[in-house]
Amino acid sequence: MKRLFWHTEKLFGNGDVNFQWQTSKANYLVTCGSNGHVNVFNRHGEPNYDFATKVSGHCTGLAWDPDGDVLAISSDQNSHVILWDTTMNRTIDLDVGLREPITAIQWSASAKLAVGSAKGNLQVYNHRADKRLPAPVAKHTKKIVSLCWSRDEKLALASEDKNISVSDANGDHICQLGVRADPSMVEFSDMKMDEKLHVDGQDNTISAVIGGKTLLLLNLHDVDNPIELAFQSKYGTIVTYKWYGDGYLMLGFSLGYFIMISTHMKEIGQELFQTKAHKSTLSAVDLNWRMNKVAVAGDSCVKVHDMSDLRETEQIITVEEESSTSLALSGASTRASLAKQSAGPTEVDKVAYTNDGQLVAVSTKAGSLHVFLAKLPSLGEAFGTRIAILSSLLEVTISNSVLQEPDISISLELEPAFLALGPFHLAVGMNNCVWFYELLDRAGQTKVTQREYMGTVSEVKLSEKFAAVRCQNSVQLHRVGMSSLEDDESSSKLFPENAQTEGVITAIALTPHFFIYATNKGSINYFSLEDWCPITHFQHAKPVTRIFPEITGTRLLAVDDIHQAFVYCPIDDSLVAVEELPNKVEGVLWENYEPDKHIFATYDDKNLHTFVYVRDSIYDSSCKKVGGATPLYHGHRPVMLHNGQVFCQSPGGKMITITLSTHTNNNNPSSGGNTNRDASQEGVNADDVYLDNMLKMNKIQDALSILGCQKLNSSSDSMSHQGVTRLKGFAEAALAHLRLDYAIRFYQMMGDVGMVMNCKDLLAIEDKRLLCGHIAAFVGEFDRAQEHFLASTNPKAALDMRRDLLHWETAMTLAQNLSPEDLPFISREYANQLEFQGDYLNALQHFEQGLNVDDTNTQGSLIGQAESEHQIGCAAGVARTAIRLGDIRRGIGIAHTHPSRVLKKECAAILEQMKQYIESAQLYEKAGFYEKAATVYIKCKNWGKVGELLPHITSPKLHLQYAKAREAEGKFREAIQAYSSAKDFDNVIRILVDHLQNPEEAVRIVRETGSIEGAKLVAKFFVRLNDMESAIQFLVMSKCHDEAFQLASTHHHMKTYASILGDDVSEEDYKSVAVYFETEEKDPFLAGKFFYKSKQYPRAVKHLLRCPITPATENDPNINPIEIAIKAVGEADDEVLTHQLMDFLMGEFDNEPKDAKYLFRLYMALGQYREAAKTATIIAREEQNSGNYRIAHDVLFGMFADLKDNSIKIPQEMATNLMLLHSYLLVRVHVKKGDHLKAANLLVRVANNISKFPSHVIQILTSTVVECHRSGMRGSAFDYASMLMRQEYRQNIDPKYKSKIENIVRKQDKSEIDAGTSACPYCNFELPDYQLSCSECKNNVPYCIATGRHLVKDNWTVCPVEKCGFPAIFTEFQAFLESEGGCPMCGTVMPAHSVSRLDGDQVKQALAIAAGLQSTQDSGAANNENSSNE
Fold first, then answer.
1. Got the DSSP string for 849-877?
2. Which residue in 723, 787, 726, 788 sits closest to 762, CA to CA?
3. Is the model more confident about 147 or about 51?
């Protein structure tokens, strides 16, 4: 709290200070200290020098009368009472008729002063009648220490004679009660009791402190049974107590405790609340009802609690003594300039609030008095975003927190009673005076003008140039800054002009352009400030008590005398009722944030309520409450509303903001404001509540921003169902309020392209009612859309809408007035709907009405064509409905002549339902629906017609039905033909075998169709003919393996059975066959073969190894027992079987080692690829040494593919041998094509490794010399010719080439044609085309399978065959495929267009694979093309 002023012991003397605030007005504070001086101060601490008195002895009473006009003062050394009349400013020394000192005084509610003396006498003085009792009344024998008046003017006295007495206003005795100790602090109150005994306006209980320890409660209706309450000893003595509420008591104790108790009989004696408010002592307690505060004084401070929550300390007032002289500080500049010298805290003695709770006075036991500002008068007003509030008793602060402008402080001369703010002026005043301050700049420099009015001013409103001042029942409108002498008719006007006709003005408002006032006769009047004349008058049925216009005046909320509110719009005199208006409305704040000016809030002393006013909408104008109430801090007064933030004036003269609950997102900590949530919304997501409120408040723009951010922050591309629903709600709200631009953006966020296009089409519509109609139709408000359409410039749009919605009855009603020429067409469409619903009678009537087209309306070929189609449709409808209604002849007649096949089909279907089969089938047949016709003919057993229609029928079902009918009649040939058409070959076979005795045809059909049931039938037939082999064959085809096995074993045809068994036989069936061959036939090969198929691997290997190998079986893997044994061992994965077969292949059993190819295949079957590779290399070397180069190539290629599939590195020797063999095989191709240069280079590569071709050394070297000489590689030809001239080769040279070779050697021509270079695919180093190792990066370079050259990155491809995949030069490979037709490596035939060039990433991957599959060792002799190997 802010300290307004204080005075020290130098003014009052050392000791307690007695003080008392003026009742009612609280303009004065009277004090009396230990020095006996009585001082009177105003609210600002300024002393009243007109009153000065001093009492002798100790002051025993300072008492104000109920009106606060008269002050009574008494002392313990004077028998007179001093009265000071504040209205007349005079002092009276009143003789009350006592001769002893006065010890207690107290005023009654009717201004009667009760005076108690030291001897127990009582005197009553009536100030208004200026008389007293004839003589004092002796009530007690000792000093009266306390007295109190009741509301019904009973008087209670407490005396040191240990008695409490009760008298009436004349001193007459009512009752008396003796107590056990000295009574004190006697009070009247109303204790909760039986309702029969309770009387309003009367106090029924006397309370008093007895001996400082207990509290006495005396019920005046039961004086014989007083109640005395004792308290815990740790509390100390009772210092003070206060009655409050409905019979509750607060008590303060000397040792710092503060408690609450109830006097209700059920709760009496129970402590409702207890706390140790102060550590050492508690000296005083004061309660203020208006502020709802209680102040507890003790130690060196005062603690302030809110009555709603006593457990929390709201404020602490620390009192510190000042070493300076008495000070009275009222202005901010005075306080700021004074230097205080603190002497430290002191013990507090008393505390007291003013009646209005604005000031609190605190005295200390050292003799000082301090006055604090507890609550400022709630004076504040806003204009736009600027707010003016009373920040101190003599100071107004103008702020603009929205625009963040510096505050302007204005010092006042007097404490104002009212305040008004305009754009350039501030008005304050009291009584009949108003001071106008012109706000010149932000520094606060002001120009002041003063004006007095004819009566007491109750309200002032300001605009830019004018002021409206309300005095009693009239309002004066004048220019700001002008005196009353300068007023004229053009600058000043008095309202109302005629009070008798217009009534009494009850509310006023001033906007930049209008002066607005309301009267008790219900009128709302607008007066133009620019034209200086009335412009609009609205008459309401009830008296209007308050008005609250929006800042421009185009919207005004008015409240009438029955507490109904409405929003009035002067533009069109529209009136919209406010729904769910709270029971109490103290004020209304319109939102001044531009996008939200349709929102306002009402408030009372506890809550704020949000409302939204909607004027432009497809619906009727409305004004509805949104969300729950927003709690308002106690004592705070709302002044301005901006963007959901309510700016409130606090009791201490500060501005705080509260966020309306409708604008608060409780899940967002940064949203600020209070976090109120309705109980009904518990468990509801706060984001959903927040967005729902935005939807209800029509805050479309803000919602668009929030939902857009949520979509950007979402991690998922797809939107949840809840998100789509929310967006749809906002889109429809934007449409409903004609905000098409925002609706388009919402639908774009939803991805609803159709609605985006629809909304964009509406942008061009200027007619508001037409636009509202289209939007209402979009959101499903069709009746409302029709109203808008009919009121628009295009009423026919209503008819079009109803037709689109299939609302035919309404459409026909509209068409009668809007478009009679459309009635036949609507009748047809309505008839179609009625027909679909089954109302055939009305449908027929409307179809007939649709045929009545006025030919005079036919204009143009298009219209004529449309009407022709319309009449055709109506005729079809008549045909259908006539048949359904029983007029079959009429319907069939129309259908037969109608050109539509569909109508014939529809009528035929109707007739079929009605079981009129003949007529139905005829219509089907006439329409060309032969299958339907045949179906109906079958129902009526007309097989002749069915037969006629069969060539046109493809349905197997109909063919089957016809076939069964023909078979039943014994016409088997026709039946077979029909069954064949129906693809029912089982029945065809059955008839052939059973009826026509034609097994050859039956066998043919079984073999062609693979029919299982047919095979069974044929098998049975052959059994009857004793043809067992054929029977077994057909039993196997029919999956009857058990029967086939029994038949084969019985008739010794097991080999026949075994030869036709497929792979779909069970292992048990295979085992049965194997056992039969093992035991019956003694055939080890077949036994072993079928044991292998039945996965009996040990028995299979046992029998297979006993079989001899013949040339006939060696080359066929299907009958080679070793090949089958290898498969068995591979599948068995059994180490014993593996060793057994290995020993057999190595010749351990018969001392005859078997061919190495079997060992290779065993390794492959076992998955031992490295051993298989080694074996394959050996086999290939043997074949190569024998001159079988193609066989060796194929062996190596197969092994290469297997190793690659299993991701095993290719051995270097295998890769080199395959490369050399492939190069040699390519020579013949290129020689054939005449490309001698390629052939020569390939032969040079082979000749450099001639030792690997021992069978054809001379032939290869001869070919190399010839091709090199042909291609111009004379140096290479000379080298290899010289090699041939050696002794070991010369004698074996072909005579045909011998002389030529000798000439080459003799001439010694060593010229050489360069074969060309290209880049290494690894490092881009230039290499000779046929060099397969890079001298720069040391990598083996892949070779082209079409040319043998090394590959380049930009012309790379691979063989598309999966088992091959060898690389090639793209262009060369295509050329090779075009000429040869197949891959040179794997031999697969493929078209040239099946290969494609690889991109950069694919080439990198291919190089990585090549590097992984090939060995990283030196390439050896295969790449050393410059060496010669003899």
1. HHT---GGG--SHHHHHHHHHHHHHHHHH
2. 788
3. 147
